[in-house]
Amino acid sequence: MHPQLVLLSARLLDPARGHLPYSALAVRTDGTISALGDDHAIRSLAGPGTTVIDLKGAVVTPGLVDGHFHPASGAELTRGLDLSRRTDLDAVRAALDEERRRLAPGAWLHAWGLDPNVFGDRPVTADILAPVLDGVPALLQLFDGHSLLASAEALARAGVDGPRTFDQAAEVVCDADGRPTGLLLEDAACELVLRVTPQPSREEKRARLAEVLRGMAASGLTGGHSMESEPEGTALLAELDAAGELPLRLRLAPICQPGADAGTIRSMIDAQGTGGGLWRIAGVKLFMDGTVDNGTAWLEHPDCHGESTHAFWPDPADYTHVVTELHRAGVPTATHAIGDAAVRHVLDSVAKARAEAPGGVRHRVEHIETVPDDTVSRFAELDVVASMQPTHCCDFTRADHTDNWSRRLGEERAGRAWRCRDLWDAGARMVLGSDWPIAPYPPLGVLAGARHRRPTHDLTQPPHGPGQALTGAEALRAMTLNAAYAAGEDRVTGRIAPGFRGDLSVFAADPTAVDALELPDLQVRLTVVGGRVTFRAADL
Predict the structure, then answer these.
(1) Are the CB atoms for 502 and 32 separated by under 8 Å?
(2) Cβ atoms 519, 447 nearer than 8 A
(3) Could you tell me the pLDDT band of residue 144, with boundaries at 50, 70 and 90?
(4) What CA–CA distance (Å, rounded) separates 111 from 80?
(5) Distance from C-alpha of 526 to C-alpha of 55, rounded to nearest angstrom
(6) pLDDT score at 1
(7) CB within 8 A of 520, min separation 6: which ones?
(8) Can you tell me the distance from the alpha carbon of 166 to that of 336, in angstroms, rounded to the nearest whole number?
(9) What is the pLDDT of residues 178-217, one digit of tens each?
């Protein structure tokens, strides 16, 4: 049979072997690479139905995979006003005022990407944004995705007039008189207001999700590890897949919340492997803590406000039990753990699970923002994947430690920010991702951030922890072969080799050699998933 795709005049870059001595490749109709060779030999394989593309010297890598993102919920969260580039209160107020003037009377104002650093030393409260939000039902998503700032009108419409008690780490932040300040920490508290806000129609959600995924394909992504699997979002992905409109290969992990009973855990186990042509359920997502910026991380010593002292699971032993049960069933886990105590508990839990039920299940820790020396080596010892998002360090912290994250932790712990180099050198398998919508999803920006560790909005600023930077080759491996390893698919994807998936990203130049500060502007020429072109530059 003739191949479905032939790429000619290419430079092939394999993360395991470097540049290959071939200029062309072919992809079978089953979506796998069938042959590598010179232009003449590979062109001769083409038939009348083969798509033949002359890449004119462009560089082909295995398809870039985002190791941690939220496409379905992110598509919904990013509707409304983007505040992610507003770096001071005046700019935030001006943007909110302009957005308010566009709205019909009584309509809700939605915004996302609010950086708590714009409040400086002041507490994050809705009052500070007065009078812009007076009388306006407004929800401002903070950049960390774990907190909302709700206006007084929004709280009133939701009937939130004082503190609440939750069965997981969450809080309606109140002042000394018991009045809500507008800050809502973690999902359970945010849901109090979210559930009374008008929602877009299902058709609107589907269109928005399709738009986001097309943008991701155009950025060079061929797949991602989606840390969510909510019924509605999963149903929309299944619809797009069935219609041939899903441009990414997605691995979805349902979320296991504290208090999950045996039946819930059993259903998550039974769901493993289900899916469609380009998506499937694989693994389970858990949370061990929240975030440093809002005081809900789990630290071994409190932050400067006396906060971040508790686990997300009220009884951490319950978390350990769940991880052991999932491990015993052969289900990999991915646990959000930002603080040092949270990371340590996850590693302890995996060690206990492996001792009770030996096996090759590949567990992961997500984020790993600050950890002490004695934790670093345990990732390799336990074969736990280190899943990290370097652009968080770039954009939400500062080299001089004057940012909210660093001030909360203090100099010693802020000096251990995102220890990518130390983990890599200790033998940990590292996967890189964006955590979109927390940070931008273009993978070239993620690769660049891992190398330069500078604020992406001002690359003239000094890097935060330059000694923790990765090389270009290491960063590429972390978004290709290591991502495949984390998914248990390193024998079928993440390489440019016969028999491996024809998931390919094509760039105008070598992404490992382009200067890190210029890398985000490198042109994406072509994106291919299973031999199907999902993005093609207009002039190609």
Answers:
(1) yes
(2) yes
(3) confident
(4) 5
(5) 9
(6) 86
(7) 442, 444, 445, 448, 456
(8) 20
(9) 999 999 999 899 999 999 999 899 999 999 999 999 999 9
Of 244, 247, 233, 141, give the one whose Cα is nearest residue 194.
141
| DSSP one-letter string for 485-507 | HHTT-TTTSSS-STTSB--EEEE
What does the domain layout of the chain look like in residue ranges?
Answer: 80-195, 203-494
| Amino acid of residue 476 | L
Are 80-195 and 203-494 in the same CATH fold?
Answer: no
Q: Does residue 391 contact residue 449 with C-beta atoms inside 8 Å?
A: yes
**Whether the Cβ atoms of residue 34 and residue 28 lie closer than 8 Å to each other:** yes
DSSP 16: T
Q: Which of 532, 496, 443, 522 is nearest to 34 (CA)?
A: 496
**C-alpha separations of 322 from 167, 259, 298, 301, 361 in Å:** 17, 10, 19, 26, 14
Per-residue pLDDT at 145: 79
Most confident segment among 84-88, 96-100, 519-523: 519-523
Instruction: With beta carbons less than 8 A apart as the criterion, state whether 370 and 339 touch.
Output: yes
CATH of domain 203-494: 3.20.20.140
3 state DSSP class of 327: helix
Q: In the Cβ-directed half-sphere of 460, how many Cα atoms lie within 13 Å?
A: 0
Task: Name the helix (H) or strand (E) containing 411.
Answer: helix 411-414
Q: What residues does 457 pair with on adjacent strands? A: none
Nearest-angstrom CA–CA distance, 392 and 394: 5
Amino acid occupying residue 365: V
Distance CA(55)–CA(540), nearest Å, equals 7
- Gap between the Cα atoms of 112 and 18, Å rounded: 40
Give the model confidence (pLDDT) of 428-440 as tens digits: 999 999 999 999 9
* CB burial readout 407-416, b (16+ within 10 A) else e: bbbeeebbeb
The number of C-alpha atoms within 13 Å of 275 and in the hemisphere containing its C-beta is: 19
Q: Which residues of 250-266 are buried (b: 16+ CB within 10 A; e: fewer)?
A: bbbbbbbebebeeeebe
Q: Find tokens 């609107």 and name the residue.
A: 204
3-state secondary structure of 24: strand
In whole angstroms, what is the distance from residue 222 CA to residue 225 CA?
11
Cα–chain center distance at 494: 19
Which architecture, in CATH terms, is 80-195? Roll (3.10)
Q: How far apart are CA 197 and CA 428, in angstroms?
A: 43
Written as six digits, the tokens of 500 are: 């491996």
Candidates 3, 13, 6; CA nearest to 495 is 13
Residue 69, classified by CB atoms within 10 Å of its CB into exposed (0-12), middle (13-18) or buried (19+), is buried
Q: Is the link from the previous residue into 358 a cis peptide, with omega within 30 of 0? A: no
CA neighbor of 432 nearest in space, from 471, 388, 490:
388
pTM of the model: 0.92
Q: Which two tokens stand for residue 34?
A: 């069938």
